[in-house]
Amino acid sequence: METWKLMSFDNSMDFIEKLIKIWVDYHASDIHITPSKTQVFIRYRISWNLESFYWISLENYDKLLNSIKIASSLAIDEHNHIQDWKMIFNIDHKWAKLSVNVRVSILPIIYWENIVMRLLISSSDRLNINNLWFSEHNLKIISKIKDLEEGLVLLCGWTWSWKTTTLYSLLNQYDPFKSSIFTLEDPVEYTVDWYVQSEVKDKKSASNNISYTFQEWLVWILRQDPDIIMIWEIRRKEEASICLEAANTWHLVMWSIHSNSSIWTITRLKKLWVESYLLSSSLKYVVYQKLIRQICPICREKITFTKQDFPQKFHPFLKQDSYEVYKVHAEWCQNCIKWYVWNTLISDIIENNDDLYDLILSWKWDVEIKNYLLSKWYIPIYIDALNKAIKWEIDIKDVLILE
Ligand SMILES: [Zn+2]
Fold this sequence. Notes:
Layout lengths: L4 E2 L5 H14 L4 E6 L3 E8 L2 E9 H14 L11 E11 L2 E13 L4 E9 L14 H7 L8 E7 L5 H9 L9 E5 L10 E4 L14 H9 L5 E5 L4 H11 L4 E7 L3 H10 L4 H7 E13 L5 E6 L15 E6 L12 E12 L2 H8 L4 H9 L6 H10 L5 H5 L3
The structure holds zinc ion.
Zinc ion binds next to loops.
């Protein structure tokens, strides 16, 4: 891979395009442009790690910053305020025409302004649930969501776990001509024709005194006769209650939540003080997902793991006495970025049923819910990951640390 080197350019838009092409090639998530007193560093986040690429002069940085601000409709003479917006780039790269959605965030720092750009390829063929690396078992469950006419689907995970991509792939299974699909996000990550998409900042903006809360916006959407509503991250009881009531009255509600397990998500809602009868009757599925690094097929090293090498919680799921798996080798190769080639997705899914309905209705704690699920068909995320390690896609070490 390219490393730390001085770049200079005359045309800053061409340079932005170059930065985006590198982002595509390395499957990065974010680009960080960080000025210091005398120079400016450009780094990429690739599989959670920040990788250094270029440094540029302050003169070039000035041109770059202005072009980014103009392309994202930000004020170029504003240097003391936090600013964020987005820009869309259409670029030809290798074999494909790409439409790239760039979220730009600018933060004034002691030297100039720090720029972070998060990029998403907004091409609908990427938004296909079959292409998101769900295991066969989980894909079978998640595919049933398209048959729902009402109810609540919770999508949980941390930042940069592709929650939005999964949500849009789920929406993509419906015909937007036959269903009225509303999305409520901050910011909108994918734009899709025929969806009714709103971007709501849950705060008063400095330039505009009129602003609405998520709650007010939600109530208004319900007056617009929606069939399906997709909502990004809800943190307050009032908003959660509106969603649950909508999901109980012939709407399908998909809602994403920051959380570190599907079971814990139910506890999180309990802590929001929503009514348990609303949750138990509306909840259909909880999907938890996480991205995990894909190990390089060229430089990986094969090892044998016996049953005893696995923690106790794995044992009920182990059918063999030993498994051949991979770990990273001492040296990485030309094919990869420090032993890894990209990411894959691991997940676990809870499907509601009569027993779970009772457990949620009586607000049982996560331990009881977990014990019940483990006695049934439920496959915890560490086993979903183990199945990928057995297929040699991921490092066994990354599997063993999963909760
Ligand atoms: Zn390699």
